[in-house]
Amino acid sequence: MDILKLATTIIDRNHSYGIDDPFYILDLNQVKQKYQNWIENLPQIIPHYAVKCNDDENILNVLKNCGTGFDCASKNEIEKILKLYVDPSRIIFAHTVKQVSHLKFAAEKGVEKMTFDTEAELQKIKQFHPKAKVVLRIRFDAAKSLFELGSKFGAEPKMEARRLVKICKELELNLIGVSFHVGSGTVDYEVFGHAIDEVREIFDYAKNYGYELHLVDIGGGFMGHDDKLLKNYAYFINSAIERNFNDENIKIIAEPGQYFAISAMSIVTQIVLKKYSQNGHVHYFINDGVYGSFRSIYSYNQFVNVTVIKKSKIHENSSKIAEQKLSTIWGCTCSSRDKIIENIMMNEVEIGDWLIFNNMGAYSTVLSTDFNGFARGKMYYLGMKVGRGKLASI
Ligand SMILES: *Cc1c(COP(=O)(O)O)cnc(C)c1O
Fold first, then answer.
1. Could you read off the pLDDT of 348-388 as tens digits, one per residue?
2. 334 an active-site residue?
3. Consecutive H or E run containing 96
4. Domains of the chain with bracketed CATH
5. Span between the terminal Cα atoms of the chain, in Å
6. Which of 37-46, 270-279, 317-326, 336-345 has the lowest mean pLDDT?
7. How far is it, in rounded angstroms, from Cα 312 to Cα 304?
8. Does residue 184 line the site of ligand 1, with CB under 6 A?
9. Ligand 1 in contact with 154 (CB < 6 A)?
10. Average pLDDT of 1-8?
11. Residue 330 bridge partners (DSSP)
């Protein structure tokens, strides 16, 4: 079964019940394939999936069974992963700014690995989770990324990072490694190599304080819309590891989010209305939007393809060939900011037709709201569910 076939089946079945809501299709085989691709390109690096990117329980279960770890940023994310019977040692609490209650929760549940980038956070860790295995997050920005993170997180790698190593020692904390995140969604592949070189320097510096660091965490940022891209990152990562950490007992992890999720999910929506501007520009209104699952569309629209499922009455009775027209796709709420895609050339479609937006698995459903009363659509699955799930059925 492919996505188009499954979507058509769901649309027809829903139609017979009078249901015309948008829905999602999540292809779990895609997630497995992504893992396979990861192992082939970066065999020495254990991915710790960034739960925030798409917290669908079936994605988490598939990755758990593949043997990945998890990057959690909050108490709820940690709880969600522990409920899947994942050992706490497979979790990294990768938020450098932790609420005290979340920190206490981590301590209580035996989640030990966590990142930090300030002295204040170290003091908090010392007080509420003194046995934690702390990982120093440094700032190392890609030249360009879809979401830059350096302005908010990461210690400056020269002076400040070294000062923090010293403070770890003074507080008698168990410093185990260094992490970075170059920014989400980058094709600056080389930056990973330079960042790993920087990590090596901090490893050497930490020896002065008696620390034998052994964890390198290269963060996230990997594009996932095209499997072939991973080998570009791998080239720079693997060679940097080879030149810096050759034959040492080092564990290397990463925190990919969108890499695993983006291509796994499609959003299926219906054209609720079409109207024309005076100049012939076509405006479509669909039943999901940027307050729903299209919140990150501005960053990702370059990767999104739209497939049409013809269901309109007009089309059934006409042999007219669709014409390419300059179009705008609006979301379903009353906000004028709820605009999904502007000024694109697309084949003209009709009210009642359905659009499948692919590559929508990253930072989509997790950000959706029910603003204006439009609730999140239902999730359907392709591929075998694992764990507590059953075979995909619709
Ligand atoms: C968001 C985030 C990730 C995942 O980033 P992607 O670009 O989706 O791979 C990993 N680590 C941290 C600390 C993050 O904040």
1. 999 999 999 999 999 999 999 999 999 889 999 998 655 44
2. yes
3. none
4. 3-26+263-382 (2.40.37.10), 29-261 (3.20.20.10)
5. 12
6. 317-326
7. 23
8. yes
9. no
10. 92
11. 285, 339
What tokens appear for 364 in the block? Answer: 């989509």
C-alpha of residue 341 to centroid of ligand 1, in Å: 25
Identity (one letter) of the amino acid at 330?
W
Strand ranges for the chain from DSSP E: 23-27, 45-50, 69-72, 91-93, 113-116, 133-138, 174-180, 215-217, 251-254, 265-276, 282-286, 306-309, 324-330, 339-347, 354-357, 378-382
User: Are 344 and 383 a contacting pair, CB within 8 Å?
Assistant: no
**Strand 69-72 vs strand 23-27: parallel, antiparallel, or unpaired?**
unpaired
Q: What share of the chain is helix, strand, coil (3-state, %, to 5)?
A: 35, 25, 40
User: Residue 276, SS3?
Assistant: strand
Residue whose pair of structure tokens reads 């299709």 in the numeric block: 25
What is the Å distance from ligand 1's center to 211 Cα?
27
What SS3 state is found at 325? strand
CA distance linking residue 291 with residue 287, whole number of Å: 11
